[in-house]
Amino acid sequence: MNSISPFYDETADFLESISKSHKVCIVSDADDAMIPYFYERYGVHLFTSERHQSYKNDNRNTMFKELLKFYRTNPKQVLHVGDSASDVLGANREGIVTCWINRNKRMWEHEVKPDYIVESLDEIEEMLVTRKN
Questions:
Q1: Which of these, 27, 61, 103, 128, is most buried using a 10 Å CB contact count?
Q2: pTM of the shown model
């Protein structure tokens, strides 16, 4: 039985703000039915394991390759934000800039490091403004 993934308290406000100036998508190791439908309101494109028969940290990097192809962009123009090692490791392997949401102040235990570390989505908008300049 699939359950809908929870989203963080600041998610709706973050998407409302960030989707006005950036293209936003969801890359998830989930089935479509597990993703709350709030994302549709913001024009967010969905890349899921179900759709691509792949996971974020698999050796083929299918989901990240499909993301780059869909948006026709350079990996360095993409910021992948996630809260797991697979978010950072898979995106990094494809050359995508990574941001780890470390809400619990854990230690990063992998050789490949995220480009950025934040504790909430609220920190990302400021980071994106800084990155643009």
A1: 27
A2: 0.86
